[in-house]
Design goal:
Elements: E1 2-6, H1 20-25, E2 29-32, H2 50-63, E3 68-73, H3 76-86, E4 91-97, E5 118-119, H4 137-146, E6 150-151, H5 152-156, E7 171-175, H6 180-188, E8 203-207, H7 214-217, H8 219-230
Parallel strand pairs: 1-2, 1-3, 3-4, 4-7, 7-8
Antiparallel strand pairs: 5-6
Helix pairs in contact: 2-3
Length: about 230
């Protein structure tokens, strides 16, 4: 199976490096992505928006001969959902890692502080305690050393969707910061943050208790969870 791995904000393809061995050992072909503007700290980010990141994922889907599995972490969840919407017939399953599908008109996070065209990794105190579970001082230092500013447009642009066949693509949600029971409660209560997820026809939920960056805090367990999601087909 071809598995396309889309990182969250401030991260490039190498952020999946401790997860991919488990996927490769299970016989899968992995395609961790570095999205436009994330090539380096000095890469130009002016004019890069959410659609550019979605289009980059779609281009990889189109380059592969068979149907794919998409994996999106954090803000990457909105990106893979846009790619599912663009190519619903080419995606076998979408896996959301501590994230979910972003509905029409939604933005990933327009509250993050921007500096010109950049959204740098902010100080840790901007994050909730739940985000930082298991993220040791050493892991925090390594994360900050590798962090690349996110293009402002990716954080602030509205999502635009066009094909309701996206609701037919099976989904796995891997929850880290909160239990599955909380997510189901939000869906039942009609919370707007999960309105798009509530419309998907086939959803499975997996708990991986840790903070918001399991690719750093529990990479082997995350790899196993992705393998299990793929094996449902």
């Amino acid at each position: 199976m071809d598995i396309i791995l889309v990182p969250g904000f401030w991260l490039d393809a190498s952020s999946w490096s401790r997860v991919t061995p488990t996927l490769v050992a299970a016989g899968h072909r992995v395609h961790p992505l570095t999205l436009p503007g994330l090539e380096s700290a000095h890469a130009p980010r002016a004019g890069i928006g959410l659609r550019d990141h979605i289009d980059a994922v779609v281009a990889v889907i189109d380059s592969l001969p068979d149907r794919v599995v998409l994996v999106g972490h954090s803000g990457g969840g909105a990106i893979i959902h846009g790619a599912v919407d663009a190519r619903p017939d080419r995606v076998l399953r979408a896996v959301y890692v501590d994230s979910g599908p972003l509905a029409e008109g939604g933005v990933i996070n327009d509250a993050l502080p921007a500096v010109g065209d950049d959204v740098p990794l902010p100080s840790w105190d901007i994050f909730d305690d739940e985000d930082l579970v298991d993220l040791s001082d050493d892991l925090r230092a390594a994360f900050r050393a590798r962090a690349i500013p996110e293009p402002r447009g990716v954080a602030q642009d509205a999502q635009h969707l066009h094909d309701e066949r996206r609701y037919d693509v099976p989904v796995t949600v891997i929850t880290c910061e909160f239990p599955v029971s909380a997510l189901k409660t939000w869906i039942k209560s009609g919370h707007p943050n999960v309105s798009e997820l509530a419309r998907i026809h086939d959803v499975e939920y997996v708990e991986l208790p840790t903070g918001h960056w399991p690719q750093f805090t529990k990479p082997t367990e995350l790899g196993a969870a992705i393998v299990a999601a793929v094996q449902t087909h």
